[in-house]
Design brief:
Elements (H helix, E strand, L loop, with lengths): L10 E3 L9 E6 L2 E5 L3 E7 L10 E11 L7 E7 L2 E9 L2 E5 L4 E4 L4 E5 L4 E6 L7 E10 L10 E5 L4 E4 L2 E7 L1 E2 L2 E2 L8 E8 L4 E5 L5 E8 L3 E2 L2 E2 L5 E5 L4 E5 L4 E8 L6 E4 L2 E3 L2 H12 L33
Antiparallel strand pairs: 1-26, 2-23, 3-4, 4-5, 5-12, 6-11, 7-10, 7-12, 8-9, 8-11, 10-13, 14-15, 15-18, 16-17, 18-25, 19-24, 20-23, 20-25, 21-22, 21-24, 26-27
Cofactor: Fe cation
Protein name: Pirin domain protein
Pfam families: Pirin (PF02678), Pirin_C (PF05726)
């Protein structure tokens, strides 16, 4: 998924200095962002107060949207560098194309994982014949410096491990949780899981005390560590827990994101992650000139042009405002 902001701000984040090393309950609100022709997303990361959760550096939640008589998601070819994209659906389908030649329809409960490495381009769209509802999340993971120039790759995993018990069902999207490990490739210690709670559930989930965590509510009103969450909200939980109390009075679903705090400083601008102003400038020039990122075949429309860089050099602003 692309950041379609025509005036994207430079975000420098990472480093352990500002990581909350104790359990906290910090509720983050979203920003409404139009995406493509008919999709509006709730952007929850980077946020006004927090920019990373482990290596997770970008979180969009969208839907559920009624697209029965609409084109649905239509995101033209665009570039990525220095990151992984994670596509996750609760309802609907998304057709992924990329400059490696990948062509894959993603459905609910299936992991679409794209490692951009040094450079890749892709498009995302609702198929012409599509389900009436579209609901999901798009997330980015920052690659560490030693892996950010790796070869681009696409992975599709339809069979993911699950944990069940006591009214809880957790699908492990990335990393590992309570002994279950996803087949998706990771480059830093992190985890992501989709968790559903049946009405009346009151349980505790084992978690890693060295990871920082956050919960993104997808549907219902899950109560996470005593905080009741409405759909589209993100609760930052800090570090230092060995278990996470969960309960629900109605059927609910949320995504749990976590990982070791990301030590490196990164600059994120538009769809690129680098380490300096020059990294970003070069990537923008390469995309505009048709170099390095390759070509996406089959999408009906032109690629996205890169927005203008700000008139001043991109400067660090830290992990938190």
């Amino acid at each position: 998924m692309s950041n379609l902001d025509l005036r994207p701000t430079a975000t420098v984040c990472g480093g352990r200095a500002d990581v909350t090393a104790r359990p906290v309950r910090e509720l983050l609100t979203s920003k409404q962002v139009p995406l493509g022709e008919s999709t509006v997303v709730r952007r929850l990361l980077p946020n006004l107060g927090r920019r990373m959760i482990g290596a997770w550096c970008f979180v969009d939640h969208y839907g559920p949207d009624d697209i029965a008589d609409e084109p649905g998601m239509q995101i033209p070819p665009h570039p990525h560098m220095g990151l992984q994209t994670v596509s996750w659906l609760h309802d609907g389908e998304v057709l992924h194309r990329d400059s490696l030649g990948s062509l894959q329809t993603l459905r609910p409960g299936e992991l679409g994982l794209m490692t951009s490495g040094r450079a890749i381009a892709h498009s995302e769209e609702s198929p012409r014949a599509h389900a009436p509802l579209l609901h999901g999340a798009q997330l980015w993971v920052a690659l560490p410096d030693g892996d950010r120039h790796t070869a681009p790759a696409w992975e599709h995993h339809a069979d993911l491990p699950q944990i069940t018990g006591g009214g809880l069902r957790a699908t492990v999207i990335l990393g590992d949780l309570d002994g279950a490990a996803s087949p998706g490739t990771t480059f830093t210690p992190l985890m992501g899981a989709d968790i559903t709670l049946s009405a009346g559930t009151d349980t505790r989930l084992p978690v890693h005390p060295d990871y920082e965590y956050a919960a993104l509510t997808m549907s219902g009103e899950a109560e996470v560590d005593g905080v009741r969450l409405t759909p589209g909200s993100l609760l930052y939980l800090g570090c230092g827990r060995s278990e996470l109390p969960l309960r629900a009075d109605v059927d609910s679903a949320f995504m749990l994101l976590g990982g070791e705090p990301f030590e490196e400083k990164i600059v994120m601008w538009w769809n690129f992650i680098g380490r300096s102003h020059d990294d970003i400038t070069q990537a923008r020039e390469d995309w505009a000139a048709g170099r390095r990122f390759g070509e996406v075949h089959g999408y009906d429309g032109p690629p996205l042009p890169a927005p203008e860089l700000p008139p001043v050099p991109l400067k660090p602003r830290g992990r938190m405002r």
